[in-house]
Amino acid sequence: MPDPTSSPSDNKPLPPGMVLGPDGKPCKICTAFRNWTPADKPKRAQNGKQPAPGIAATMAAMAAGSSAVARQPDPDTRPEYCPPDVEQLGRATWTFLHTTAAYYPEKPTSNQRVNMLTLLRSLPVLYPCSHCASHLDTNIKENPPDVSGRVALSRWLCERHNDVNSRLGKLRFDCSIEKTDERWKNGPSDGSCD
Ligand SMILES: Cc1cc2nc3c(=O)[nH]c(=O)nc-3n(C[C@H](O)[C@H](O)[C@H](O)COP(=O)(O)OP(=O)(O)OC[C@H]3O[C@@H](n4cnc5c(N)ncnc54)[C@H](O)[C@@H]3O)c2cc1C
């Protein structure tokens, strides 16, 4: 697999944040929407409306109190009807995985353990962002899943997520069961999610 952050085979410099797929071409599902700028990309469609102003213009107009400009769509925000980018896919996948771990039994049957293992081991094979899948494959081989119960599984998953967070320069999450349950099962004690 080529280095996903190096230049494509035609040696043209890769725009910042664009990621290559296993075929050596820019990979849409591996790239954040705001960084997806292929050379032959048509101007971002605005459903027949005028193109939205840049962020700087929008911020300036908002500061000046212009509601007309403030209502324009943010060109860096993906419209609802679009397929996911690497970030939206990641958030949805983490939501599914952490929530599933939070509701996994304290004492799973052998059938539940086998199925959880199959789910987790399938991810590096099937996850559509190829470089994410490749990192996850290495990570899971070095840190085999602990499917012995929900506390152990929640921690294991939290640590794998933290490995990605660290690689992306994001803050690490407190992997105690109190914190993962608060985020993915119970909500905060102030009742704001009840
Ligand atoms: C398996 C996998 C591999 C990925 N690999 C890459 C990659 O190589 N490159 C890339 O650009 N993106 C990757 N992503 C996407 C990336 O992890 C993020 O999902 C994406 O950048 C959006 O980040 P976010 O800041 O919105 O929050 P996310 O990281 O998606 O987190 C969602 C929410 O989970 C909570 N949270 C954060 N950390 C933890 C934790 N450790 N445990 C429990 N809860 C937590 C927070 O409340 C956060 O708001 C990957 C996603 C997955 C599922």
From TrEMBL:
It comes from Rhodofomes roseus. It is an enzyme of class 1 (oxidoreductase). Its cofactor is FAD. It catalyses: 2 R'C(R)SH + O2 = R'C(R)S-S(R)CR' + H2O2. Residues 1-10 have a biased composition (Polar residues). Residues 82-184 form the ERV/ALR sulfhydryl oxidase domain. InterPro entries: ALR/ERV, ERV/ALR_sulphydryl_oxid_sf, ERV/ALR_sulphydryl_oxidase. Its EC number is 1.8.3.2. PANTHER family: ALR/ERV, FAD-LINKED SULFHYDRYL OXIDASE ALR. SUPFAM superfamilies: FAD-dependent thiol oxidase (SSF69000). Keywords: Disulfide bond, FAD, Flavoprotein, Oxidoreductase. This is Sulfhydryl oxidase. Residues 1-21 are annotated as: Disordered. It comes from the Eukaryota.
